[in-house]
Amino acid sequence: MTLSAQLTHFGVHTTDLDRMVDFYTRVMGFLVSDSGTGGSGARIAFMTQNPECHHQFVLFDGRPKELAYNPVNQISFRLESLDTLKGYRRALLKEGITKMDKRQHVTAMACCLLSAMLLSGCAQYQWQKYGATQSDFNRDAYECQTEAARTYPTQVVTQQITQGYTTASTTNCYSTGSAYGNSGYAYGNSYVNCTTTPGQYVRGTEMTVDVNSGNRSQAAKQCLYARGWELIRVK
């Protein structure tokens, strides 16, 4: 059997989750499709640009600030034109991101951030509006998400993922001072001690989730539609 797998999403640990979420939503045009807290206690934000994908990548907090280097080598985006690339460069400079390098792969040229992301595995969609620019979309997306957050604020609840259970009790017995005659009957001072260890309760797995995340994402999407944006499937 030939094994094959298609990349659909992956996760990145961050030192400042809120700042990363703000950057990817406000500057890069992503939406937060879901959020919560994982079993390890790390906060999670699920990010997507595609209505057919719940998430294309996931941001976690908990990355140590004292790491000597960035463990993320690259995160790559596919852009529609060189002008779009130049527009993103201007937007990144406004965000204070000045360390960029030029890369050329055969016929493709890119201005690379220190980190980048390959998003694949789902059909690709773009928000488009006649006559609008990427900056227009970034502004509208940010305002729509802000409005949606006011309408559907974060409401974190704990959900049971797996049920708890009790392990089986165990009993161990041993005898002391026993003596047996030729016929097998016990005589003298002999007795048996038994110790029973009760079963232990093992808690089920729990996860905290934001129950308003779905409504918030849908409200942001409807807001963009109301402002004249359309989701167009692209090749």
Q: What is the CATH-assigned architecture of the largest domain?
A: Roll
Please trace the helix and strand order, writing H or E for each element: EHEEEHEEEHEEEEEEEEHE
CATH topology of the largest domain: 2,3-Dihydroxybiphenyl 1,2-Dioxygenase, domain 1
Stretches with pLDDT under 50, minimum 5 residues: 105-121
Sheet with the most strands: spatial strand order? 1-4-3-2-15-8
CATH level-1 class of the largest domain: Alpha Beta
Note the gap between the termini: 30 Å
Number of domains: 2
CATH superfamily of the largest domain: 2,3-Dihydroxybiphenyl 1,2-Dioxygenase, domain 1
Percentage of helical residues?
10-25%
Please, how many helices?
4
Strand content: 25-35%
Shape: elongated
Number of strands: 16
Q: What structural category do the secondary elements indicate? A: alpha+beta
Alpha-carbon Rg, integer: 29 Å
Biggest sheet details: 6 strands, mixed
**Average pLDDT figure:** 75
Question: Can you characterise this structure?
Answer:
With 235 residues, the protein is α+β, with helices and mostly antiparallel strands. Mean pLDDT is 75; it is low at 105-121. The longest helix is centred in the middle third of the chain and has 18 residues, at 134-151. It folds into 2 domains: 10-163 and 207-234, 2,3-Dihydroxybiphenyl 1,2-Dioxygenase, domain 1 (Roll), CATH 3.10.180; 165-197, no CATH class. Helix content is 23%, strand content 32%. The strands form 6 sheets. A 6-stranded mixed beta sheet has the order 1-4-3-2-15-8. The two termini are 30 Å apart. A hairpin with a 2-residue loop joins β5 (101-105) and β6 (108-112). It is elongated, with a radius of gyration of 29 Å. The protein has 4 helices and 16 strands.
